[in-house]
Write a structure and sequence with these properties.
Number of helices: 9
Order of helices and strands: HHHHHHEEHHH
Strand order of the largest sheet: 1-2
Radius of gyration: 17 Å
Largest sheet: 2 strands, antiparallel
Helix content: over 70%
Shape: globular
Number of domains: 1
């Protein structure tokens, strides 16, 4: 099958990857960062939502960003970037900072890798736009990052990676980014919770 990666698709994924990793890498457990992060997410969410109620703004928005949007996003659904940043912010304010950094970095990197890989080899569709190769890349990326970068032992790494891959595969499109980030944060949080319990 032909490679279906366009420049706009690649640009979209690079924006997701770059913005997501910046928000994770520069995250600090301080009031000013929490405020700036919250303002960014609120501003983005309001701009995205209000285009459904203001035709002039919607025309301007589509003129600027329409080439990078999915069909559902052009028809009014929240952008992937909006839900990505919203998911990151929710994880940031709910979970401890180390949990957030581990979970969010893995989710952002694995999701981008899976999306690009699924476009490169678009065989064996599993569900909607999901492919077998994309899901395998997602799981493989999670395993490498958890185990090799974050030094989590192999058994919990495998378990968390399998669960997160299933979450990514079966999530509804509009909340997929939120599900992946919050779901992974829960997995990482409970991993450390049980680790502390075992040591005590």
């Amino acid at each position: 099958m032909p490679i279906t990666i366009s420049f706009t698709f690649l640009l979209r994924k690079l924006i997701h990857l770059g913005s997501g990793l910046c928000l994770v890498c520069f995250a600090r457990d301080t009031g000013w960062y929490s405020l700036l992060f919250g303002l960014l997410v609120s501003f983005t969410f309001i701009l995205d939502l209000t285009r459904n109620f203001n035709l002039t703004w919607n025309r301007i928005f589509l003129r600027l960003f329409g080439g990078m949007l999915k069909e559902s996003e052009r028809n009014g659904k929240l952008l992937g970037a909006t839900t990505l940043w919203l998911g990151l912010y929710l994880a940031y304010i709910i979970f401890p900072l180390p949990t957030f950094k581990i979970a969010a970095s893995v989710a952002v990197l694995a999701d981008a890798t899976a999306a690009i890989g699924g476009r490169l080899i678009p065989r064996h569709p599993l569900r909607e736009a999901k492919t077998l190769f994309g899901s395998l890349l997602f799981a493989g990326s999670c395993i490498l990052l958890f185990n090799q970068y974050w030094n989590i032992p192999l058994l919990p790494t495998l378990l968390m990676s399998i669960i997160l891959t299933i979450v990514e595969l079966y999530s509804i499109e509009i909340i997929e980014n939120i599900n992946i980030i919050i779901g992974n944060s829960l997995l990482v949080y409970y991993y450390f919770f049980f680790q502390v319990g075992i040591k005590n």
